[in-house]
Write a structure and sequence with these properties.
This protein is 32% helix and 14% strand. The protein contains eleven helices and twelve strands. Strand 6, helix 7 and strand 7 form a beta-alpha-beta unit.
Length: 320
């Protein structure tokens, strides 16, 4: 059985290929250094790792499994030819849960303790204390709404629960309510839940259903004292609507790690808007990620050889 590592190549991918060949001798691993080598190798390949074009897929009638290199590949990865091809696609989800969960909690704690106010004051060397009963969100009295209760959302729920928060959530796939969550709803209930939340955390992937689904109308459903956090994908949130909502006082602030346009343009109003915290799409950063990626690739290659179940199978038509 053949697995083709698609170009462009990196030293890391070449190392993975060597490790796979050593650990799974029944799998022939081919490192295609360029497009011509990929076309020559793909014809009888049962498996591939990387981003195949429509033209390459047309030359891959035997392909049964494709490992996507990311948890949520960029727009265009799930093109028409890939969706139509019989190959099963798996992705790299579930490797960032601890890192992104901690990042979400950092944003929540920053807002709860007023750091979005005090950090700008620090840059101005300004000593300005509010009354002691203002400027703080008491987390045991607060409700967190997690929009998308996958692995990342569930880890955020666990951490929030440790601080005494009540967690409610929506999810398109999860059927059983985890112990970390007080209420689990289908996505259609979102608008009815928004007015109840003190913090709204968006962890959903970019799909045809979620593109631009957080806009001005939904921000207006939130409490004026609530905070919005997007840690999932930038294309789910209309930034112009978010700016307008904050400027109009329709919510207290926002924290973003992902954006409609990346990098965020230097002249974008979010950079200087009061009550906004920004990080440059790095919430998933942390140790052990490459080993976790390799483990998914190895486990799925072994499952293909043995006829076992693949990890992280994707609904191609819905991109996740």
């Amino acid at each position: 059985m053949k697995l083709v590592m698609l170009p462009p190549q990196t030293d890391l991918a070449r190392d993975w290929a060597r490790r796979l060949a050593a650990e799974l001798p029944a799998m022939q691993v081919v490192v295609a250094e360029d497009d011509a080598a990929a076309e020559a190798a793909i014809g009888d390949a049962a498996a591939a790792y990387g981003t195949p074009s429509a033209a390459l897929l047309a030359k891959a009638p035997a392909l049964r499994w494709l490992q996507a290199p990311q948890a949520a590949p960029p727009a265009g990865f799930y093109h028409t030819a890939l969706i139509a091809h019989p190959a099963v696609v798996t992705n790299m989800r579930e490797i960032y849960n601890d890192h992104i969960g901690a990042h979400i909690m950092a944003f929540i704690l920053a807002f709860a303790r007023g750091l979005h106010v005090y950090l700008p004051q620090q840059t101005r060397r300004e000593w300005a204390k509010p009354p002691e009963d203002e400027g703080v969100v008491h987390l045991p009295d607060a409700t967190l709404l997690v929009v998308g209760l996958g692995g990342i959302g569930l880890e955020a729920a666990r951490l929030a629960g440790a601080f005494g928060m009540k967690v409610i959530a929506t999810d398109a796939r999860r059927e059983t309510r985890p112990a970390e969550v007080a209420e689990l709803h289908r996505p259609g209930a979102l608008d009815s839940l928004l007015p109840r939340a003190d913090f709204v955390v968006l962890t959903v992937p970019h799909t045809p259903a979620t593109e631009g689904f957080f806009g001005r109308a939904r921000f207006q459903l939130m409490k004026r004292s609530a905070f919005f956090i997007n840690i999932g994908r930038g294309m789910t949130t209309r930034l112009d609507d978010l700016v307008a909502a904050i400027q109009a006082g329709e919510l207290a602030g926002a924290a973003l790690d992902v954006f409609e346009q990346e990098p965020l343009p230097a002249d974008h109003p979010l950079w200087t808007l009061p009550g906004v915290l920004l990080t440059p799409h790095m919430a998933g950063y942390g140790p052990h990620l490459n080993e976790r990626r390799y483990a998914i690739l190895r486990d799925n290659a072994a499952a293909l050889l043995s006829g076992g179940a693949l990890r992280n199978v994707v609904d191609k038509a819905n991109w996740f």
